[in-house]
Design brief:
- The complex is a heterodimer of chains A (415) and B (482).
- Chain A has 415 residues and is an alpha/beta fold.
- Chain A has three domains: 193 residues, 3-Layer(bba) Sandwich (FAD/NAD(P)-binding domain); 134 residues, FAD/NAD(P)-binding domain (3-Layer(bba) Sandwich); 85 residues, Immunoglobulin-like (Sandwich).
- Helix content of chain A is 20%, strand content 35%.
- Chain B is α+β, with helices and mostly antiparallel strands.
- Chain B folds into three domains: 217 residues, FAD/NAD(P)-binding domain (3-Layer(bba) Sandwich), CATH 3.50.50; 148 residues, 2-Layer Sandwich (D-Amino Acid Oxidase, Chain A, domain 2); 96 residues, Arc Repressor Mutant, subunit A (Orthogonal Bundle), CATH 1.10.10.
- Chain B is built from twelve helices and 23 strands.
- In chain B, strand 19 and strand 20 form a beta hairpin.
- The longest helix of chain B has 20 residues.
- The chains are: A alpha/beta (415), B alpha+beta (482).
- Chains A and B meet through strand 7, helix 3, helix 4, strand 11 and strand 15 of A and helix 7, strand 18, helix 9, helix 12 and strand 23 of B.
Chain lengths: 415, 482
């Protein structure tokens, strides 16, 4: 099958759907979403808990409800087409795409602009190199979430969770509600990478202990997991203190140890990457180093809230439409440079111009309280103080683009 | 009544089974595990050794060099990947250079073709990125890499297609030698009667031998750990890089795999036991250090997984092959440690000769088909081939494993081909689904669904790797009564 379109969007999750809608609203005549799953909505479809949409809709929704709002709108919008069960295998700088579909065979798409919205995947046990055996019962939290929420299957009855990422916290509660005993959550860092509201609602409300500076040093069990050895780590070196090691019995180990943007297509297309975010480098329009290819959502950098994904996707979709229509201005860019406690900032570049622009960033460790300074050369664009900044919560600062004359630095330090 | 039962479905047992299937005899393979390649054959260095390492005059030296030469035809007939990438043994000082020369001489004595002693510059030409203190190396052009479980699976499938029967979850517990036959019985009182037994039971080959009255050797476990690296950082190594054997053993190697993931390994823990294939932090640390010793830029910080295998080390120091002097109905292929993978085809040929000598009448079958067809993996197809494949079978258009681009058609095919009960790891080994960097995070539930669909196994009965390695323990509360 051969198709042409103004804007092609890779991925029909929350980012892809929001990007499609905003591209269409911004004047793109035809927008094509390529989705590898059998239904749109992405990972939200397995997130049956609530807490989505507070910022975007001012309402608390479940994941599927949040997704459905976008799906309904996309399906009722002329000029947006969604190809399901269609997985993109190649993206090229000339905005041509090759996808595979069981219905249409090989799908060749020629777009004028492309939005990358492939989302992210979970870090695995292999990436951690956790010693021990390799029995059944070791799952990433998201994989377990799919089994429980979409297949109605219980991965185990006695659970230990490594990592306090949001999916792990959500699954601690979910498994408890399904009658499993969640023994503990171990977090190697002295702070959680998850949202505070999840620690309260998922762990504290269910009496599940959370141990900081603690990790798993060995997995036991020949056929099925029989337990894990848990040990405290030295807060400075992060190396386990073996004298604190103890055996904790369990039949299942869930891992919630980080998310990695899924950028195989992006790197294959020769797009410049940010080593810290593991996503593409973009400007404020969310345009990558390859003109006409945009990126948004968790493929660009991992978000805490889908609400932020939707907002970012709107920006990418709108600008992709402008690019397709030939109305996206080309101008000089300046760099946005993280300093002090700031790990990364998205966008990594800005185009000089008018109006306000929001910068999103994360800190590398907890700052309590934190002072934020945004500068352009010697000129201070913004300085604020915040009670606490932690790596688990994405921060946002809005600056006046009119004052940007050169490279911008974003710095966080102990206040 | 069988003519031969082969005990053990590792690479040696399956290669023997394949070779036996050329003849007009009745053969069964009895395997304790739930699939083929469940022991050392699923976790080893995947190297077809040139053969300079073995002591001249040993069984090892003979079958290694002969086996290496057979690999091209076996892999061609069986559609198993083989890459003659050559191997280097690095020398870091003059003492090591002496060792390299000694290996060269042993290689000559063993009949290894295509060896050369290289100086530093020549070694760097073969493999850029070697450490600064590498002074020279032994080059062996017949050194190759293959896929050990694919080889095992392919031999088994070809043997099966040619009439060999396979029985899984059969743990031989009692063997009675009668006047003209042997009875092999398991813990569930299943009994096989056969004229001969071939002992290819790997780590447990001493137990089988003992059951048949041959106590001439024992087998101990030697655990070896590996770190497998992400494919995106694996193009730094293009040949097998050994280190000169020192007081600490053969040394740890850095090598490419036929699937383009590099690895570092193995460690060598003597008397590690036969059961515990766990990976230790100590082992991982040793691997990182040793890997960097050969190639300072080895990206050990980009693993996709770590694993361990247990080699079956014979107390005699050599492979135990041929008719047992203690029981004429017992043909040994026992104590096969490294270089067992390299030797398997030659051991298979010698086993046939041993059976003939032992008195088994063996006539070649006219209808033996040496070819095992394996469809080209979707990930290796051109886009034209993909188009054609999807047109023929639309399930090729449904990608189940994103990381390795494995389609429903390939997984369905693997499920249907599995001789035992399909498992998640079994399908992984047959298709690579779950072997990529998400390690099955996305595709495991989908592969489980397909196993359930095509093999009619309820989801809660599907295992990771046989036995009681069930992947899920039941249904959620809302689903329990459905």
């Amino acid at each position: 099958m051969i198709k042409t379109c103004d804007v092609a969007i890779i991925g029909g999750g929350p980012a892809g759907l929001a990007a499609a809608l905003s591209a269409r609203k911004a004047g793109a005549e035809n927008v094509l979403i390529l989705e590898r799953d059998s239904f749109p909505g992405g990972i939200l479809q397995q997130c049956i808990h609530n807490g989505f949409g507070l910022h975007y809709f001012g309402q608390e929704l479940t994941g599927p409800e949040y997704a459905q709002r976008f799906i309904d709108e996309a399906e009722n919008t002329d000029g947006i087409e969604i190809l399901l069960d269609t997985m993109v295998i190649e993206v090229h700088g000339d905005k041509s795409i090759i996808a595979v579909s069981n219905k249409y065979g090989l799908v060749n798409v020629q777009a004028k602009a492309v939005v990358l919205a492939m989302g992210c995947r979970e870090r695995t046990r292999g990436a951690l190199s956790t010693p021990g055996t390799r029995p059944a019962g070791v799952y990433t939290a998201g994989c377990a979430q799919r089994l429980v929420n979409m297949e109605g299957l219980m991965p185990g009855k006695k659970i230990v969770i490594l990592g306090s990422g949001d999916i792990g916290l959500i699954m601690a509660r979910r498994m408890t509600w399904e009658g499993a005993k969640v023994q503990m959550v171990c977090e190697i860092m002295p702070f959680s990478s998850g949202l505070n509201r999840n620690i309260v609602q998922c762990l504290k409300d269910n009496d599940i202990p959370l141990y900081f500076n603690t990790t798993i040093v060995e997995i036991h069990g020949k056929e099925r997991v029989t337990g894990v050895t848990v040990a405290e780590v030295d807060p400075k070196t992060r190396l386990p203190k073996m004298e604190t090691a103890r055996f904790v019995e369990c039949d299942t180990l869930l891992l919630s140890v980080g998310l990695i943007p899924e950028n195989e297509l992006t790197t294959a297309a020769g797009i410049e990457m940010d080593r810290v975010t593991s996503g593409a480098k973009v400007d404020a329009a969310r345009q990558t180093s390859v003109p006409g290819i945009f990126a948004c959502g968790n493929v660009l950098h991992v978000h805490d809230l889908v609400d932020n994904v939707s907002q970012e996707a709107q920006i990418a979709g709108e600008n992709a439409a402008k690019y397709a229509l030939g109305t996206l201005p080309v101008a000089d860019t300046v760099k946005v440079i993280p300093e002090g406690g700031v790990r990364y900032v998205v966008p990594q570049q800005l185009v000089k111009g008018e109006g306000n622009v929001a910068l999103y960033f994360r800190v590398g460790s907890a700052y309590k309280p934190a002072r934020l300074t945004v500068k352009c050369g010697d000129a201070e664009l913004k300085t604020t103080k915040k009670q606490i900044m932690t790596p688990g919560e994405m921060e946002k600062v809005v600056i006046d683009l009119g004052k940007v004359t050169g490279d911008v630095t974003v710095k966080v330090e102990e206040a | 009544m069988y003519d031969v039962v082969v005990i053990g479905a590792g690479v040696v047992g399956c290669a023997i089974a394949r070779q036996l299937s050329r003849y007009k005899i009745r053969v069964a393979v009895l395997e304790a595990g739930s699939d083929v390649a469940m022991g050392a054959s699923r976790a080893n260095s995947a190297i077809v050794h040139a053969g300079y390492d073995c002591e001249p005059g040993t069984n090892m030296a003979r079958v290694n060099v002969a086996g290496n030469a057979l690999y091209d035809s076996w892999c061609r007939e069986l559609s198993v990947p083989l890459k003659r990438c050559g191997s280097l043994v690095l020398a870091f000082d003059e003492r090591d250079m002496e060792e390299v020369k000694r290996l060269y001489d042993k290689g000559i004595a063993n009949g290894v073709p295509g060896m050369k002693i290289l100086n530093r510059a020549e070694a760097l030409e073969k493999q850029p990125g070697l450490a600064d203190d590498v002074v020279g190396a032994l080059w062996a052009e017949t050194g190759a890499i293959t896929c050990p479980y694919e080889m095992t699976i392919a031999c088994a499938e070809n043997a099966h297609a040619n009439g060999v029967e396979f029985y899984f979850n059969f743990k031989a517990e009692k063997i009675i030698t009668l006047k003209d036959a042997v009875e092999v019985e398991d813990d569930k009182n299943v009994l096989f009667r056969s004229r001969f037994v071939v002992n290819a039971a790997g780590l447990h080959s001493d137990d089988i031998s003992h059951l048949m009255g041959d106590n001439s050797f024992t087998v101990s476990g030697r655990k070896g750990e590996y770190i497998l690296l992400d494919r995106s950082v694996s193009d730094f190594v293009r040949t097998v890089v050994f280190q000169a054997p020192g007081p600490l053993g053969k040394g740890i190697l850095v090598s490419p795999t036929v699937d383009n993931n590099a690895f570092v390994g193995p460690t060598a823990w003597n008397n590690s036991g036969k059961e515990n294939s766990s990976v230790s932090q100590e082992g991982l640390d040793i691997l990182k250090t040793a890997g960097r010793k050969s190639m300072p830029n080895v990206p050990v910080n980009r693993p996709i997984t770590a694993f361990a295998g247990i080699r079956a080390v014979p107390s005699t120091g050599d492979f135990i092959l041929g008719q047992s002097p203690f029981n004429p109905r017992l043909i040994q292929a026992a104590g096969i440690s490294s270089p067992g993978l390299s030797s398997a085809p030659a051991i298979a040929e010698e086993t046939v000769e041993s059976l003939k000598k032992a008195g088994l009448s063996m006539q070649l079958r006219a209808d033996f088909d040496p070819i095992r067809v394996k469809n080209k993996p979707f990930r290796l197809m051109t886009n034209e081939e993909r188009e054609a494949a999807i047109a023929k079978d639309p399930r090729y258009g449904r990608i189940i494993c994103r990381c390795e681009t494995v389609t429903e058609a390939e997984i369905a095919n693997a499920i249907e081909r599995t001789l035992g009960v399909p498992t998640l790891d079994g399908i992984k080994r047959r298709t690579r689904a779950g072997m990529g960097r998400c390690q099955g995070g996305f595709c495991a539930p989908r592969v489980m669904e397909l196993i359930s669909k095509y093999a009619y196994i309820p989801m809660d009965k599907i295992t990771k790797n046989g036995g009681e390695s069930n992947l899920v323990v039941g249904r959620t509360r809302g689903e329990e009564n459905k």
